[in-house]
Design a protein that fits this description.
Helix content is about 70%, strand content about 0%. The protein is built from nine helices and no strands.
């Protein structure tokens, strides 16, 4: 009984440093602010090496600075902390694409697709996350070059979508290629 309730406690110092870093989001376009935020988040994750949110926020700042090599290291740490999070693999794939490493990106998109497909196989269509996983599956297929399958999924999402803004987003993804 006690083992299941033993959720990892995040160090309060790490949380405080993360909170300080997040005050710099409003200045994210300033490289100096992003570097300062990363410095605070480096400190936070050195205090608590399992602090998911600290790494996640660091990823945002690295991406903003176009430091894709460091962003890739960070997404890999996030994957180590949450190995079944399909969105992290998709993010990793996108980062590898931006870094020009197509071979590595394909492995990440394939892993994300596998996780999405396995979850969708057992998920009810009424689940609030169903459409998100289906759209992520389609994006993975698109990035893997299977535009026929991705377009089928995007068309289904488009046809079933009631929200006009979301319809526009789905429409923008239809009939696209990886680039």
């Amino acid at each position: 009984c006690g083992q299941n309730s033993a959720k990892q406690k995040i160090d309060t110092g790490a949380v405080e440093l993360n909170n300080r870093a997040m005050t710099l989001v409003q200045f994210i376009d300033s490289p100096d602010s992003s570097k300062k935020a990363i410095s605070l988040l480096d400190e936070a994750t050195s205090i608590d090496s399992t602090y998911f949110l600290g790494y996640f926020n660091k990823l945002m700042f690295y991406n903003q600075l176009k430091q894709f090599d460091k962003a890739i290291l960070t997404v890999n740490k996030l994957i180590q902390l949450r190995p079944f999070a399909h969105d992290l693999y998709m993010t990793g794939g996108l980062l590898y694409e931006r870094a020009g490493d197509t071979a590595s990106s394909q492995k990440y998109f394939q892993k994300s697709l596998t996780i999405c497909s396995n979850v969708l196989d057992t998920m009810s269509r009424k689940n609030r996350d169903y459409e998100l996983l289906v759209s992520n599956k389609a994006v993975n297929l698109l990035m893997l070059g299977d535009t026929t399958q991705s377009d089928k999924i995007f068309k289904m999402l488009y046809d079933n979508q009631n929200d006009e803004e979301l319809k526009k987003v789905v429409l923008s993804l239809m009939n696209k290629t990886k680039k």
